[in-house]
Structure formats: structure tokens, C-alpha cells
Design a protein that fits this description.
- The chain contains eight helices and no strands.
- With 198 residues, it is an all-alpha fold.
- The protein has one domain.
- Helix 4 crosses helix 5, helix 6 packs antiparallel against helix 7 and helix 7 packs across helix 8.
- The longest helix has 30 residues.
- The model has no long low-confidence stretch (mean pLDDT 89).
């Protein structure tokens, strides 16, 4: 394992295989919390943190406990239980130390338990047969990609709130058009990451 392969894994997770804009995972909090920039940043950081600690917890359990004992088929149940416990920990911590952000995130914070982007990051680490460093790099890249998409989209939504679009596309249709254009922009990164070091 060399440093260049870790950079490729991270940049691929952030830009080329962005969970929200390319793989369309985690759309519920993406659309629900992206109306204001501060809420989007808070949710993006919370997802990044949960992805990191979920990967840090699930990879060793799979590699050291489930796979050697032929219990790989239990990974879905075990990963969901671990992610749910970690999200509860984040929720309790936010409620205690960041009550304003906790209130802004509302129902979307406990919904991180079922956020398919967090779950997909843990499954991808196992299915891609990453070692621990690669799994953590991928989790960081996926979380950073989620945060980047949230911040960019929140900026777009704040700007379009002040615009005067035709009545037929106000609200959700305009948001969906904006997501589609943003997703096409991210698709332009395809092929770039593989050629970084070659």
C-alpha cells in the first residue's frame, strides 16, 4: 500500500463516486437539510463523523470476527446495529453540547441511522476488500464528498431562494433541476482520478 493509492481512493470517493451526486445515496438528508448553509455544514460534518467511526468500528468486527468464523452473512444486521448505536451517541452529544444545531437538524439527525450513504460506506469497505487504512480513507473521502455536495447545494439553494423563477418550477422542482445540473458537473470528474499519477 502506497500513499498514491490512498489519494486515489479518497479522491475517487469525493469526486468520481460521490455518494449523493453519482450514486444517489443519502438523498433524504441532502434535500431536507440543504436549505441553509449552516445546517448543511452541520449535517455534512455529522455524516462525515458517523462514516468515520462506523467504518472504524465495522471493519475490525467484520475482518476479525465475522469473516474468520464464516458469519459474513450477518454483516448487514451487525453493521446496522453498530451504526444505530453510533448515531445515538452523536445525537446525545449534539443535544448536550450543540443544542442549536441539534434543533436545526431536527428529524434528519436520527434518520442518519437509516442513511444509506453511511451504511453503503461500511459495505463498500468490505466488498472492495480494503485494508484498514484504505477503509478509513474511503470513509473519510465519502464523508467529505457528502459534505462538499451539501455545502455546494446549500449555496445554490440559498441563491435560488432569492431568485424569481417561473411559478411552475418554484420550490422542489427548482431544487431537483439544480441537483441534476450539479450531478452532471460531478460526472465530469470521471477518468480524472485514475490519471492523477499516471
Amino acid at each position: 500500500m502506497d500513499f498514491s493509492s490512498l489519494i486515489i481512493i479518497m479522491m475517487s470517493a469525493v469526486l468520481v463516486n460521490n455518494f449523493v451526486l453519482i450514486q444517489f445515496l443519502g438523498i433524504c438528508p441532502f434535500l431536507g437539510v440543504s436549505k441553509k448553509l449552516d445546517s448543511a455544514i452541520g449535517m455534512g460534518l455529522a455524516v462525515l463523523f458517523v462514516m468515520m467511526i462506523a467504518s472504524a468500528a465495522t471493519w475490525p468486527i467484520y475482518a476479525l470476527l465475522l469473516a474468520p468464523n464464516g458469519l459474513g452473512y450477518l454483516q448487514t444486521i451487525v453493521f446496522i446495529v453498530i451504526i444505530a448505536a453510533l448515531v445515538q451517541l452523536v445525537e446525545i452529544t449534539m443535544k448536550r453540547f450543540m443544542p442549536a444545531l441539534y434543533k436545526n437538524l431536527g428529524i434528519f439527525l436520527p434518520l442518519m441511522t437509516t442513511n444509506c450513504a453511511v451504511f453503503a460506506a461500511t459495505l463498500l469497505n468490505v466488498s472492495a476488500q480494503y485494508n484498514y487504512a484504505e477503509a478509513m480513507t474511503n470513509a473519510f473521502g465519502a464523508g467529505a464528498g457528502f459534505l462538499l455536495a451539501m455545502v455546494i447545494f446549500a449555496g445554490i439553494r440559498e441563491h435560488t431562494e432569492n431568485a424569481d423563477p417561473p411559478a411552475c418550477i418554484k420550490g422542489l422542482p427548482l431544487a431537483l433541476f439544480s441537483v441534476a445540473i450539479l450531478a452532471m458537473a460531478f460526472m465530469g470528474f470521471g477518468g480524472v482520478v485514475e490519471n492523477l499519477f499516471g
